[in-house]
């Protein structure tokens, strides 16, 4: 089941974001080794309270198995595309529940909510090292919009 996140979900969501962040750290050295998660209980709570954010929780019975965070973006004169956009900022599924359709259900719920709000597009970023996620999003109909390149100047 997918539903809007609740304050009572925060501790489990924080733990799940840490699991997702750890997964990304294993894939790439670009993630700070000492950071457990980019969120705090306070920052997650602020997202839940904000009209500008979308926070969805996936449940299997009473267990939280996934989440999707996004941000609603209104048109602005300085944007390339002056349309309403849902920017998906973070998606995570518990390792033991990956490939069970939870990510697909979260994305579908987000798209349905976006359509209800008259949003013209859904956008997201995928780390280049995360082939599995890139394939997943391509299967959902996402296409590359631009390429963001980086040159590391620090020896590791």
Automatic annotation (TrEMBL):
CDD domains xref list: NAT_SF
PROSITE patterns hit by this protein: GNAT
Pfam families: Acetyltransf_1 (PF00583)
InterPro entries, per database record: Acyl_CoA_acyltransferase, Bact_Acetyltransf, GNAT_dom
Source species, domain of life: Bacteria
Domain N-acetyltransferase: 1-156
Signal peptide: none
Acyltransferase as UniProt keyword: yes
Keywords attached to this entry: Acyltransferase, Transferase
PANTHER family per the UniProt record, alphabetical: AMINOALKYLPHOSPHONATE N-ACETYLTRANSFERASE-RELATED (PTHR43877:SF2), AMINOALKYLPHOSPHONATE N-ACETYLTRANSFERASE-RELATED-RELATED (PTHR43877)
Protein name as it appears in the record: GNAT family N-acetyltransferase
Species this protein is from: Exiguobacterium indicum
